[in-house]
UniProtKB/TrEMBL annotation:
This is Glycosyl transferase. GO terms for molecular function: transferase activity. The keyword Signal does not apply. It comes from the Bacteria. It comes from Microbacterium memoriense. The chain crosses the membrane at residues 174-195, 247-268. InterPro entries: DUF8094, Prot_inh_pot1.
Length: 592
């Protein structure tokens, strides 16, 4: 009976394994659908619209072939079409009949005289980019509002041999269970067969009641092999058993390896349902709000590029190179530092910008330009985190850091997630406790008058470490000056709003993070007509002033880059100080 069940198991195993293999081979339909793309005209760029990419479900595989280096990048369609206004390109769209239509779009905007030549490589607009020689193949999964740009170097014609492919979704969910189930039945059949053989052998043992055995004759071991016939050539029972075991083990291992090697994930049924997302706080996004300026990965890449280029500029004291990645107050601070390092070799450079490690990202939700994002970047060391505002002037410009400071206060702000973004606040907005355009002037008045300032009640003094440091520094310097030069001169302090444009992005509680600059001035003037102000002990001031002494005195200007949280007009909160950086900006002789 064991042999019968073994045969049944072998037959069922053969049927199941055969059916499973057939599903993965002869019975399986095409796994992908491929669409060749015809590009009209020799243009330097090809724009594949998001509708084309989404014309089929599933992952999109782009294949571009040509001579030389092939470039591809993807970004929001609006960003790509704006960037391509300075070049001719072929726009691939989806026609009414579902066919891909190629339309040549001519250049619509001439670049400025000082504009850098248009090149697709390393633009800050791209969410990601790819480069490969002669043949580029990449898999994408883009929504309809994103498109793909294909080019070579931006001058030579773009590759014309393009294909797109998508998975058909053809799956064989029962191939895996059939193959594995058949393998298990095969194993069961082998076990039953082995048990049957064992039972048959044991049943041949001596019996109590049997027929008398014939008398056997002794075998002469000296007889030659040919005379003994099959007796001497027949192996022992033990060797036969070993041979069968070896034969039984090998096919099981071989079959298992063959069966399981072909069972990919689509060869199994999906027995687990889709996970149910947990409830998260909802954020109401206005219908007219634009897309966030950058993604988190994009911001990381931009900050890394800014850090790298500014590090090179710092090493060479190259203000022109720094201007490629810095602007406003951040550029002014570096220009002054380069002047000092050129005149004073031992002068230290400004702190480098961290290359990565974004802790907080607040991008502006805006489809036009200029566009800005604010980021808090941490190094993970004992140094404080860095807060910065970064702005892109137009589609063809690189992002540049405008304000940068050390985070100096621990505070909890209600910020929109990076995939939503925040709207920019108008400099003259009346909906904040102070309009951004008035914030620098009000804070400068507080630095000069402290609690006597009319704006002092608007600011939270307990969290403002910068204000405390400035007051202590002024007191210390004034005391030191009066000990040596009170009879021959005077030292006065003043603060005023900087000449840079404030940056303000809204928070979820109708407040805003605002970045401004404040200029502090220290003025030393003689009180005696015969006295002069000498700079022998101040090499930094001397290097910036260009002279070693003056009969009228000197005015030294320090530039402060400051970040605040400004609550809404209706809020009971006060303005909170977030971070600062301060550096010397200029020294001039007092005009008589």
């Amino acid at each position: 009976m064991r042999f019968v069940w073994a045969v049944v198991a072998f037959v069922l195993a053969a049927v199941m394994i055969g059916a499973g293999i057939a599903q993965r081979t002869v019975l399986q339909g095409p796994t992908t659908v491929t669409q060749a793309i015809e590009v009209t005209g020799d243009v330097p760029y090809v724009l594949i619209d998001g509708a084309v990419l989404r014309s089929h479900d599933g992952t999109q595989t782009l294949r571009a072939q040509g001579d030389g280096t092939i470039f591809a990048a993807y970004a929001r369609t609006n960003d790509l079409t704006t960037w391509l206004q300075r070049a001719d390109y072929a726009h691939l769209t989806l026609g009414e009949d579902g066919a891909i239509v190629s339309e040549t779009v001519p250049q619509t905007e001439a670049p400025a005289d000082d504009a850098i030549a248009l090149t697709p490589v390393d633009s800050d607009l791209w969410l990601d980019q790819f480069q490969q020689d002669d043949l580029l193949i990449t898999q994408l999964q883009l929504p309809e509002d994103m498109s793909v740009l294909v080019a070579t170097d931006g001058t030579e014609p773009a590759p014309s041999d393009l294909t797109l492919s998508w998975p058909t979704g053809a799956a064989t969910p029962w191939a895996g269970p059939l193959i594995v189930g058949g393998s298990l039945l095969l194993l069961v059949g082998l076990i039953l067969y082995a048990l049957g053989v064992r039972h048959a052998r044991r049943s041949r043992g001596p019996r109590r009641k049997g027929l008398p055995l014939p008398v056997t004759e002794p075998i002469d071991l000296a007889v030659d092999t040919e005379e003994k016939g099959v007796i001497s050539a027949t192996p022992t029972r033990r060797s036969l058993t070993r041979g069968k075991r070896s034969f039984a083990v090998l096919p099981i291992v071989a079959v298992s390896a063959l069966m399981f090697s072909g069972c990919s994930p689509d060869a199994w049924p999906e027995l687990v349902g889709s996970p149910t997302p947990s409830a998260t706080p909802s954020i109401v996004v206005p219908d007219d709000q634009g897309s966030p300026a950058v993604t988190e990965a994009q911001a990381e890449r931009i900050i890394s590029r800014i850090s790298t280029q500014l590090s090179v500029a710092d090493e060479a004291n190259d203000a022109a190179a720094a201007a490629g990645r810095a602007d406003g107050a951040a550029l002014q601070a570096r220009e002054t530092n380069y002047r000092l390092r050129t005149a004073i070799p031992e002068q230290q450079s400004l702190d480098p910008i961290p290359t990565s490690g974004i802790r907080v990202l607040l991008p502006e939700a805006f489809d036009g330009w200029p566009r800005t994002f604010i980021a808090v970047v941490g190094t993970g060391a004992d140094s404080p985190d860095t807060i910065m505002s970064v702005t892109q002037a137009d589609a063809w410009s690189d992002y540049k850091v405008e304000y940068i400071a050390d985070l100096a206060a621990d505070t909890s702000l209600s910020l929109a997630p990076p995939y939503v973004g925040a709207v920019a606040i108008d400099p003259d907005s009346p909906f904040l406790l102070l309009p951004p355009s008035e914030l620098a002037g009000a804070y400068a008045d507080v630095l000069d008058k402290d609690a006597d300032s009319e704006f002092a009640p608007l600011f939270d003094a307990e969290t403002d470490v910068f204000r405390t440091q400035i007051a202590a520094n002024r007191t210390s310097r004034l005391e030191s000056f009066n000990q040596t030069a009170a009879e021959t001169g005077t030292l006065t302090f003043a603060a005023s709003a900087g000449d840079t444009t404030p940056v303000a992005l809204a928070t979820l509680d109708s407040g805003a993070i605002v970045a401004v600059s404040v200029n502090e001035t220290d003025t030393v003037t003689p009180t005696n007509a015969d006295a002069v102000i000498k700079l022998d002990d101040s090499p930094t001031v001397k290097a910036l002033a260009g002279v070693s002494q003056s009969a009228t005195g000197f005015t030294t200007t320090f530039a402060d880059q400051l970040f605040f949280f400004v609550p809404a007009q209706s809020s009971t909160q006060r303005i909170q100080f977030l971070g600062y950086s301060s550096s010397i900006l200029d020294v001039k002789a007092v005009t008589p």
